Amino acid sequence: MSKELTPLQQIERSITKKYRKELWNPFVEAVKRYELIQENDKIAVCISGGKDSMLMAKLLQMLQRITEVPFDLTFLVMDPGYNPINRQKIESNAALLNIPITVFETNIFKVANNTEKNPCFLCAKMRRGHLYNKAKELGCNKIALGHHFNDVIETTLMAMFYSSQLQTMIPKLHSSHFEGMELIRPLYCVKEDHILAWKRYNGLDFIQCACRFTENTANSHDGIGDSKRQEIKELIRRLRKDNPDIEQCIFNSLHSVCLDTFPGYKTKGQRHSFLEKYD
């Protein structure tokens, strides 16, 4: 008679068996394709408590067990001012997933919630700064964030529609303010629908963004809410009805940019025109 699996074993098995094609394979693909991890890296895995960062932490932990490339992981949880319920949920999920978290406190929510001008931008900027500082203090040379495939294409469309520019997230990025530090995105090729399916399959309950500015999204019936990112999600959802491959097409296009066909582009802060090389 086979031994019954523990909840942790079932969760890990679902990643390598049931959702191998949807989660494990694209995760490994991103790590290899974009050369995200090198020998002796010390990576601060930044955990917000949501589904994406928790899955990322588990994937990196599982990779560390089997890889021939040695690297270290520190599972970092920054508390920006969570209420006790959300803080407890993060801690209990980390225990369930056997992720040894290091928690440190900040007052980000208090500061961001007291400004009405771009509070989300301020919150994100402060989060990034605190994470880089703590990671560097702990001797890490990289931070890993849980941005996934859909974040990439949504960011691209948002920049086009609302900022009049073609730009997106790249899989890794050298920090311009913290020397020797690098940001990596291991979930770059993992689709959000598959993360949600894995979460539901295992009966997991993670926190959503816990600030007052996104409560309308968390509490809405369709999970869309009113933010610009949610508007883009809904647009893609509608386009998918006519073209099921629309998301993959957008993603692939980011890897096949034809600069020769653009009237203008920007690199290293400098604007350029096609006229510079026209004649």
What do you see in this structure?
The chain is an alpha/beta fold and 279 residues long. The protein has 11 helices and 8 strands. It has helices spanning 7-16, 20-33, 51-66, 84-96, 108-112, 119-137, 149-163, 192-201, 215-218, 228-242, 246-253, and strands at residues 42-47, 72-79, 101-105, 142-144, 172-174, 182-184, 264-267, 270-273. The protein has a 6-stranded mixed sheet with strand order 3-2-1-4-6-5, with helices on both faces. The termini are far apart.
Short note summarizing the structure:
Helix content is 46%, strand content 13%. The protein contains 11 helices and 8 strands.
What is the secondary structure topology, with strand pairs?
Elements (H helix, E strand, L loop, with lengths): L6 H10 L3 H14 L8 E6 L3 H16 L5 E8 L4 H13 L4 E5 L2 H5 L6 H19 L4 E3 L4 H15 L8 E3 L7 E3 L7 H10 L13 H4 L9 H15 L3 H8 L10 E4 L2 E4 L6
Parallel strand pairs: 1-2, 1-4, 2-3, 4-6
Antiparallel strand pairs: 5-6, 7-8
Helix pairs in contact: 7-10
Question: How would you state the average pLDDT, rounded?
Answer: 90
Major beta sheet, specifics? 6 strands, mixed
What's the SSE pattern?
HHEHEHEHHEHEEHHHHEE
Uncertain parts: 215-225
Which class of secondary structure composition applies to the elements? Answer: alpha/beta
Number of strands: 8
Side-by-side strand order of the widest sheet: 3-2-1-4-6-5
Radius of gyration: 20 Å
Percent range of helical residues: 40-55%
Count of runs of 4 or more consecutive helical residues: 11
Report the principal-axis shape.
globular
What is the straight-line distance between the termini? 77 Å
Strand content range? 5-15%
